[in-house]
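Extended Data, panel c. Modelled sequence:
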Amino acid sequence: MSKKIWIIVPVIALILILAFVIKDNHKQGMIKIGYSPYSVNTPLFIAVEYNLFTKRGLNIELIPFQSTDQMAMALQSKQIDVATALTAESVYSRNKKSSIIRPFFLNIFLSNSIVDAIVVPDKSTISSLKNLEGKRVGILPADMMRVAFKSFLENNKVDPTSIEIIAVPPSSILSGMSSGDLDACYILEPLVTISLQKLNARIIAEGVGAKGITNPLPAGFHCVHADLIENSPGIGKKLIEIYEEAATKANNRELVVKVLQKYCSLDASIAQHVSLPSWSKWTPRLQNNLCEQFESLKGVYKWDSSNFTYTNFIKD
């Protein structure tokens, strides 16, 4: 009996010590940030490159992900503390029972931007949206892309059911178009610029998401786990300050080219021309507008605004 006690007591003590260390690490600003190597995360790359986290006492570790869904799962299970550029459905589906994923910053798509666009091969006979009928169109595998594309087509009097819409991973969507397996693609930057410069593709529609759903369109959610906010008062405010400062610095194209080359492995010639979204901190107004727009779309989730819980990080 005494041997069991001597084994159990140290184990319990070790667990308590680890729990304390993890909590203390959060207090000291040690946070894990999940990201994908895409230009929508330019503020994060700038913040890391120019030590904006360190200047505010935050020690961070970047964790790369190829899928926003995998990243959202990691945030939900607390493998990471912050997730970047999540899709709306990732936030919604994981907040159905409890609002553990808290948006604090957004990517904003505008109707006059080529951050997202429908492109076709240079020699394609497709010259209008109507020409897409009967064709195969590749889109990135995210629900918001599908909803935006279909809504945009309907707004332009094109029947989405007349088009074969195929979800294709970012790594192979352009090769699918150049091989002839796809007649067109609905893609995001930097794939748009890559298609224009390396494949001589043509844009037949830009700003699809904003034109299809709402303009401006909140299209990527930078989120923090609720536990981090509760255990580490002040971190939410720091994250917003860091992202806002970095977003301002993103007006410097030379700086943007530098970080896109480093963190997205883009050639300078591509990075120079990549279009960037706008950015904004998460507000109650944006939350309400987004939920109202999604609820008005047919065949989409009934978006409950409580699943996009607004946290007033400025006062945390």
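Residues 2-27 form the longest helix (26 residues). This feature is highlighted in the accompanying rendering.
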